[in-house]
Amino acid sequence: MDQTSLLWLFVSSLLFCSTNQASLTVSPSRSQFFQWTSVSLSCEEDDSSAGWKLRRNTTTETRKECGDGWGRSAGSSCNISFIVDWDSGVYWCESREGATSNSINITVTGGPVILQSPVLPVMEGDDVTLHCKTKTSNLPADFYKDGSLIRTEPAGHMTIHYVSKSDEGLYKCDISSHGESPSSWISVTVNRS
Length: 193
Ligand SMILES: *[C@@H]1O[C@H](CO)[C@@H](O)[C@H](O)[C@H]1NC(C)=O
Ligand SMILES: *[C@@H]1O[C@H](CO)[C@@H](O)[C@H](O)[C@H]1NC(C)=O
Ligand SMILES: *[C@@H]1O[C@H](CO)[C@@H](O)[C@H](O)[C@H]1NC(C)=O
Known about the structure:
By secondary structure, the protein is mainly beta.
């Protein structure tokens, strides 16, 4: 688990400890996946008797529960063994009473390149590293934010130091010899302490 998810777990345990809440985590912790890889989704909850289950909206389904035509359900987790492009969508946890967790966007690509970006909101002031990857290698990559080229990185990854609200946006990357990744939204949470 990376620092961002650990921090998120810590913050959510503080926020949610006495209420009926859950937070959704995804492993590997990122928003974009190559087809045919496996993904595990988990509702981190404080009350397992509340019956938290994974649900998702895709282009063809709404509010579909894990196990009902997608994924393999075990308690409040759900695994997808071979994720494919029609698994792209928004995922969340929902209790029996209809309480909902944070939601997560997942994008699955049949293309040659993914952007590995944080799936959960980034805390203002943190450093965040984006990786542009093919299935097999790290190659020089161009990174784009909201449609504009922001950096060219010879090693295929870029770090934004001391993230601020102005870094929030839609990111993608391009490896010239292979192609472009899908776009993912990175959101920044303002630290209230
Ligand atoms: C899922 O789709 C339903 C129906 O369109 C919508 O009401 C709901 O807000 C969507 N959920 C999320 C988390 O986007
Ligand atoms: C989901 O995947 C994880 C990691 O691969 C594994 O440890 C766990 O047992 C799996 N759970 C189910 C319900 O298959
Ligand atoms: C999911 O993606 C949409 C479109 O890019 C964006 O507006 C929304 O804020 C994203 N939701 C989350 C939870 O990141």
